[in-house]
Write a structure and sequence with these properties.
Number of helices: 4
Helix content: 55-70%
Number of strands: 3
CATH topology: Multidrug-efflux Transporter Regulator, Chain: A, Domain 2
Oligomer: single chain
Strand order of the largest sheet: 1-3-2
Shape: globular
CATH class: Mainly Alpha
Distance between the termini: 41 Å
Structural class: alpha+beta
Strand content: 5-15%
Number of domains: 1
Protein name: Excisionase family DNA binding protein
Order of helices and strands: EHHEEHH
Largest sheet: 3 strands, antiparallel
């Protein structure tokens, strides 16, 4: 039987567990626009790919500053959108 694919978005709580910090830390970053998220009312979901890539880069020996990382993530996404529409 096929294993279900992980949803591309994850809860604040799941992201906090994965990163070893509190839910409130992630919530503050989302509210400050320093962490990518999909907001639906008061609920926020974060991209699983962002969290997984952040962790992978940290495990590869890079120092990851979340605010800088989120800005680079957004710039990369914008460039990809512009490429598709060019």
């Amino acid at each position: 039987m096929n294993e279900p694919t992980a949803h591309p978005l994850m809860t604040i709580h799941a992201a906090a567990l994965a990163l070893g910090c509190s839910d409130m830390t992630i919530r503050r970053k989302v509210e400050a626009r320093a962490f990518p998220a999909v907001k639906i009312g008061s609920k926020a979901l974060v991209p699983r790919a962002f969290v997984e890539r952040l962790i992978a880069d940290a495990l590869a020996g890079r120092t990851v500053v979340v605010e800088e990382y989120a800005a680079a993530w957004a710039a990369e996404a914008t460039a990809m959108r512009e490429e598709r529409h060019a």
